[in-house]
Amino acid sequence: MVRYTLRQLAYFVAVADAGTIAAAADELHVSQTAVAAALKELERIFGTQLTVRRKAHGVSLTPAGRQLHARAAAFLREAEELELSTSSGGGELAGPLVVGCYLTLAPTILPGLLEFFATEHPKVQLDFVEGTQDAVQEKLVAGELDLAIVYDMDLRPGLESVQLDTMQAYALLPAGHRLAGRDAVALAELAEEPMILLDAPPSSHHTMSVFRDASVVPKIRYRTTDFELTRSLVGRGIGYSVLVQRPAGDATYEGRPFTALPIEPAVRPVDVKIVWPEGIRLTDRAAEMVRFAVEAHAPRRGGSGR
Questions:
Q1: In a 10 Å sphere around its CB, with 0-12 CB exposed, 13-18 middle and 19+ buried, how is residue 160 labelled?
Q2: Which of 22, 144, 271, 299 could form a disulfide with 152 if both were Cys (CB 3.0 to 4.6 A apart)?
Q3: What b/e sequence results for 114-126 when a residue is b if at least 16 CB atoms lie within 10 Å of its CB, and e otherwise?
Q4: What is the pLDDT of residue 300?
Q5: 3-state DSSP call for residue 168?
Q6: For 44-93, what is each residue's pLDDT tens digit?
Q7: Of residues 83, 109, 110, the one with CA closest to residue 94
Q8: Which sign, positive or negative, has the C-alpha torsion 67, 72, 73, 74?
């Protein structure tokens, strides 16, 4: 029988994550004495120093402490999953699930996932976080998210992934644009016109790479970080834009029409993926989310996007 307890491991992980005993105690709603005693007892049981405590500098981990932190955090997650699956008899999903999503993808992808889980798995406490690709990945790596839905661009190393969709960049033109009646448009034909750039990485990185591949330098008139503002400015005739995400509607928030045209020659498509940290065992809830997300988008994979 092991001599340490789950509570002691939880206190140790809390200290490692918080950086101080005081902060960990506040988070755990216990006394600092209890937390310090748990650390001391773990060091006695394992026969090695796990932390270095310096006044006014908090707590740092020794090499042995860093190794224990990684394994203890995973062990605690497994223990939580064991309790959840056992209490439900293994037949019903229950517990928390947090999904992150790149902000321009969220309006067309998240609602269907939320509706499915609310209907099929009512005991799952599903929450979501929208943000830039960098911010979503940071939260994922920090353990604040179970999964994230992102473009396959500027991805960090060390992520497992499954493809959900493939999308193709297109040109968005005002409804009365001189090229609006065409079947497709070349970027060179727009080179001298003002452009509205959706400046939300990695979308902006991809857009600029599309122009570089076409040997065209766009004349950027405005930069926005909002997808709908970009479409509204185009709808007003202020400029054109190049986007990837394509909602079903063909009008701006103001009700102004626009025209979406394929770019010729065809540009490199962009994959949409659901990702999670490499080496992490997905919870049953997260695995079900991946399964459903893949199933829901299967007809579109390999296509030209929405």
A1: middle
A2: 271
A3: eebbeeebeebeb
A4: 56
A5: coil
A6: 999 999 999 887 678 999 999 998 998 888 888 777 777 766 655 556 78
A7: 83
A8: positive
Residue with tokens 């992808």: 109
207 in Cβ contact with 263 (< 8 Å) = no
- Measured distance CA(140)–CA(8) in Å, rounded: 25
The reported pTM is: 0.71
Dump pLDDT digits (tens) for 140-181.
Answer: 988 889 999 999 988 999 999 999 999 999 999 999 999 999
The predicted pLDDT at position 56 comes to 67
The kind and range of the H/E element at 20 are none
Mean of the pLDDT values across residues 183-207? 93
Q: What is the residue type of 42?
A: L
Give the type of residue at 94: A
CB 182 within 8 A of CB 230: no
Number of neighbours of residue 195 by Cβ within 10 angstroms? 22
Q: What are the tens digits of pLDDT across the range 239-295?
A: 999 999 888 778 888 889 999 999 999 888 899 999 999 888 888 889 999 999 999
Give the relative orientation of helices 32-46 and 63-87 as an angle to the nearest 10 degrees.
110
Q: Residue 100 has which token pair? A: 């992150």
Cis preceding linkage at 111, omega within 30: no
Question: Residue 118 and residue 297: Cα distance in Å, rounded?
Answer: 19
Query: DSSP alpha helices (H): ranges in the chain?
Result: 6-18, 21-28, 32-46, 63-87, 106-120, 133-141, 203-213, 227-235, 284-297
The dihedral sign for the CA sequence 59, 64, 68, 70: positive
